Amino acid sequence: MSRSNLEIQDQLRGALMAKLLEGGVIRQNLSSEDFEEPFKAEFHGMNSFDSLFVDMLIWLQQEGFIRHEGFHTGSNGEACVTLCSPAAMAIKQLDEKVPGPGPTTVREIVTASSGPSYESYGRLGAFFGGLIGGYQGSIG
Description:
By secondary structure, this protein is α+β, with helices and mostly antiparallel strands. It is built from 5 helices and 4 strands. The chain has helices spanning 5-23, 46-62, 88-92, 106-110, 118-139; strands at residues 28-31, 66-67, 70-73, 79-86. Strands 1, 2, 3 and 4 form a 4-stranded antiparallel β-sheet that branches. Strand 3 and strand 4 (79-86) form a beta hairpin. The longest helix has 22 residues, at 118-139.
């Protein structure tokens, strides 16, 4: 079953945020190769996934969820980000409720003993994507 563009973006956003929140304030180097596995069916050439990976990280930074030092190309041609960590805005959300079945807070999804599933990554990604819309709606 093929996923929509929005589902893919929610799942990638959730996977990135879960990885970063799990590390806390420790800065991490991330590679698109670390996140590509569940998206291989939708992205036959890695260049398009690399572009989405970079675009998602830029969006997360511009919306105030993450910090990073910059991007570079790895030894296999993959997209990489240097010294990335969650911003205070993201860490503040750890105990917020996330709609849906299973773990109910951001913290519970991130620390699930069996590891988050791509369904919960999708919920987490939609949650972080919705924060911006909810915030903008509250000030408009």
